[in-house]
Design a protein that fits this description.
Elements (H helix, E strand, L loop, with lengths): L3 E3 L29 H6 L9 E6 L14 H7 L8 E3 L6 E3 L2 E6 L5 E6 L13 H12 L6 H7 L2 E8 L2 E6 L6 H6 L6 H4 L19 E7 L3 E6 L12 E6 L3 H9 L5 E3 L2 H7 L3 H6 E7 L2 E7 L9 H9 L3 H7 L5 E3 L22 H10 L12 E2 L2 E2 L1 E7 L3 H17 L2 E7 L1 H9 L5 E7 L7 H4 L16 H11 L4 H18 L2 E3 L1 E10 L29
Parallel strand pairs: 2-11, 18-19, 18-20
Antiparallel strand pairs: 1-20, 3-4, 5-6, 6-8, 7-8, 9-10, 10-11, 12-22, 13-22, 14-20, 14-21, 15-22, 16-17
Length: 551
């Protein structure tokens, strides 16, 4: 599936900021706290009602699933407002039908034919048909549409044809091992809503119309995004009446709001998990859950900049990052150091690669070897008249990212490199990435169960796409392309392990950690299960005596 950018060490879900109370969707007074007896002992048959107030740590740039590139849109939309033809089962991780009731794959692995459900309607009452699927594909492939991150995965499709209103066929030019998942998981938008005017600026980017169990109610910029139950939903109705995503970019503020029980679900930073949520009152009202998801955090070096064009310099930068210290002191061991761009618990991950150690002396030797020396005695290294001064970009709200940047700055100062730290809002941050207007950044990638490195690492994505650091390597390109058409997983793993060796050698990223997701959930919710890929609030319900909110 798609890879999504997220704030470094942020949880997979996100949420919003505004207090809500019973009978008023835009209030300022928090509900009364619940007693320990109610939260720990109340059990009942699932009933309808109540809201989920969900913390969103950054505001999405858009709710258009085709042009979005961050995890925040996905958190609000995916499985709630918009649906796909198929999806991964929470428990088995196998592909299950959603908008498609069945599918067939040709023997040559080139043709994928989906039979669509006939009782599905868009949330404005219009029927969902195969024409919407064809339109969505054509839109993704339109070079005028801001979807390079998606277009990268559908380039090998020769055509998408509506056989009839409820049958659609994808035909590939050559086999692709993730074809079923990408065809079936392609974002689908309503043709009748998006076909007129400029797709990139269509008002539905702020007012989505989907087929899912929840429909969009409102978006108050900087405060909240609200979804309400879709009473005309074609499938099983969710129990909760609303999901309110409250936007709080400051993690310390979100914790205080959580403790006042004005949030029901919130991600916790490592220090919050380890030290700030252990009081008796917190443990009476919240469950703390932790789990690994496919992700990795990193520092990305812009290879088009003179300081980072040389792999010796990039290796030197990695030698200046004390990852073990950061993991222990800042992350409280809620993660593991990684060395390559695959999920650490997957067979694709190359465990034979040893991390470059923290070694300032080695870093200095590499910088000297690369020609970066202090020629004028001002304390800053230079080369060919260019001083080693750069800007380290971090998203606002990334408290851990700021701490890592501060540690790195101290190390660089001692090494003769000047680094300025700059925090900017998420929407501006992603624009800077897309326009390649940065020197270095710290971020994380959220991945699928199986991942294809094409989106991030192919040279074809360096100018416009998710390869924003500008990594270009001929052997890496060959391996990426060969692996995409290899259906034998063992052979594909062998290719990916060699690819990982190349990336390790080149160090376009300083790979940091596979981070553990840590989250607090109010105890009034029942059926809160932790699956291999996390939690699923659409399954939750609240016993009637514990319900706090009504329409």
């Amino acid at each position: 599936m798609r890879l999504f950018l997220s704030l470094i060490l942020s949880v997979v879900f996100v949420s919003t900021l505004i207090s809500c109370k019973s009978g008023d969707g835009d209030s300022t007074k928090a509900p009364d706290s619940k007693t320990a007896e109610q939260t720990t002992k109340a059990t009942s048959e699932p009933v309808d009602g109540d809201w989920l107030i969900y913390h969103l740590s950054a505001e999405p740039a858009t709710l258009n699933p085709i042009t979005a590139s961050d995890a925040y849109e996905n958190t609000v939309n995916s499985g709630n407002v918009y649906e796909t033809l198929i999806e991964r089962n929470n428990e088995t991780l196998e592909l299950d039908p959603v908008l498609a009731e069945s599918w067939e794959i040709s023997e040559d692995k080139l043709t994928y034919t989906f039979k669509l459900r006939q009782n599905v309607k868009w949330q404005d009452g219009e029927p969902f048909t195969s024409k919407d699927v064809v339109f969505s594909y054509q839109t993704i492939m339109n070079p005028k549409v801001d979807s390079p991150q998606l277009r990268a995965y559908y380039q090998e499709i020769r055509d998408v044809v509506a056989i009839d209103d409820h049958t659609v066929r994808f035909t590939y030019a050559r086999p692709y091992f993730l074809a079923l998942e990408f065809c079936g998981g392609m974002p689908i938008v309503p043709k009748h809503v998006f076909e007129e005017g400029d797709f990139n600026t269509n008002p539905a980017g702020r007012d989505p119309v989907g087929t899912g169990p929840y429909k969009f109610l409102r978006w108050t910029t900087g405060r909240e995004i609200v979804l309400e139950k879709n009473t005309d939903y074609w499938g099983e109705q969710p129990r909760l009446n609303r999901i309110v995503f409250r936007i709080i970019t400051d993690s310390s503020v979100s914790l205080q709001v959580l403790k006042r029980e004005e949030l029901d679900v919130s991600g916790l930073t490592p220090i919050q998990w380890a030290r700030q949520t252990s009081s008796k009152s917190f443990e009476e009202n919240f469950d703390k859950l932790s789990y690994f998801r496919p992700n990795y955090s990193f520092i990305g070096w812009n290879l088009t900049k003179p300081y980072f064009s040389d792999k010796l310099v990039r290796r030197a930068m990695t030698h200046l990052v004390d990852r073990e210290l950061i993991l222990q002191k800042i992350l409280f061991d809620l993660g593991a150091v990684v060395t390559n761009p695959f999920y650490i618990n997957s067979p694709e991950y190359n465990k034979s690669i040893t991390p470059y150690p923290y070694d300032p002396k080695k870093a200095s030797e590499l910088l000297q070897q690369a020609g970066w020396t202090d020629t004028n005695g001002n304390g800053i290294r230079d080369k060919d008249g260019v001083e080693f001064k750069f800007e380290f970009l971090i998203p606002a709200g990334s408290e851990t990212g700021e701490k890592i940047a501060t540690i790195l700055k101290e190390e660089l100062d001692k090494t003769g490199i000047s680094m300025d730290i700059r925090k900017i809002e998420w929407a501006v941050f992603t624009t800077r990435l897309n326009e390649r207007k940065f020197d270095a950044v710290t971020l994380a990638w959220s991945m699928g169960v199986e991942s294809d490195p094409y989106q991030i690492w192919s040279s074809t994505q360096a100018e416009k796409g998710s390869n924003f650091v500008g990594f270009v390597n001929e052997e890496a390109d060959r391996l990426i392309e060969a692996a995409r058409k290899e259906f034998d997983r063992d052979k594909r793993i062998e290719m990916y392990r060699r690819f990982a060796e190349i990336v390790h050698e080149e160090q376009p990223y300083t790979f940091m950690f596979c981070n553990k997701s840590t989250v607090a959930v109010n105890k009034r919710f029942e059926n809160v299960l932790v699956y291999p890929l996390g939690i699923d609030p659409t399954e939750w319900h609240v016993p009637l005596p514990l319900q706090l909110y009504s329409e």
